[in-house]
Amino acid sequence: MKKTKGGAKATARTPLIPAGLDPELLARVATTTLAEELNLDIRAFDPLLVLAGQMQEQKRWKEAFELYARLGLIDPTQLDVQIGLARCATELGEHDLAIKAAANVILLAPHDARGYLLSGKNCLLIGQYQEAREDLEDAMRLAGDEASLRRSALLLLSQLEVIVPVESSISTNS
């Protein structure tokens, strides 16, 4: 058994658990949201979600991001919170963070085009062209009759085509 800094112990078979913490408590915390743990009615936070949306409309990206982040700590399974985080992070130039929030959107709602659109846009912005193409094509496929989502995905795909034509992206990534 190896003793690590701070009194935590780890072996090849057991995870690193800080000394004095109950593994059952850690497991419960890891599988529940703060809202569930504190028995909070998540609908009580709806006015804050509306406020964050208004901040986005006013292009107050940093303030909206901070509010979405707080709401995400309470319940990270709220789809609108993750979408808001991704949108604000995109506008703030925090593309890696936006991709992580978009990945959460995809996990929470795999048939929702918005997660793929947000991921694709941010992958495009940081030069991950193959990933961008895949996500944007998924967004197009999942957008269905939602014209604004289809238009946004198509615009980003056309921008990507100017940067990396389909033929060259296939030949360089094989």
Give an account of the 3D structure:
The structure is a single chain. The N terminus is likely disordered. The longest helix has 17 residues. With 174 residues, the protein is an all-alpha fold. The chain has one domain: Serine Threonine Protein Phosphatase 5, Tetratricopeptide repeat (Alpha Horseshoe). It has a two-stranded antiparallel sheet with strand order 1-2. Helix 3 packs parallel to helix 5. It has ten helices and two strands. Strand 1 and strand 2 form a beta hairpin. Helices cover 68% and strands 2% of the residues.
So, the CATH homologous superfamily? Tetratricopeptide repeat domain
- CATH class reads Mainly Alpha
Q: How many strand elements?
A: 2
Describe the main β-sheet briefly: 2 strands, antiparallel
Dominant shape: globular
Mean residue pLDDT: 82
Tally of individual domains: 1
Question: What is CATH's topology name?
Answer: Serine Threonine Protein Phosphatase 5, Tetratricopeptide repeat
Report a brief summary of the structure.
Helices cover 68% and strands 2% of the residues. It is mostly helical and 174 residues long. Strand 1 (2-3) and strand 2 form a beta hairpin.
Q: What's the structural blueprint in terms of helices and strands?
A:
Layout: E1 2-3, E2 9-10, H1 23-31, H2 34-37, H3 46-57, H4 61-74, H5 79-91, H6 95-108, H7 113-125, H8 129-143, H9 147-163, H10 166-172
Antiparallel strand pairs: 1-2
What brief labels describe this structure?
174 residues; Serine Threonine Protein Phosphatase 5, Tetratricopeptide repeat; two-stranded antiparallel sheet; 2 strands; disordered N terminus; TPR-like_helical_dom_sf; Tetratricopeptide repeat protein
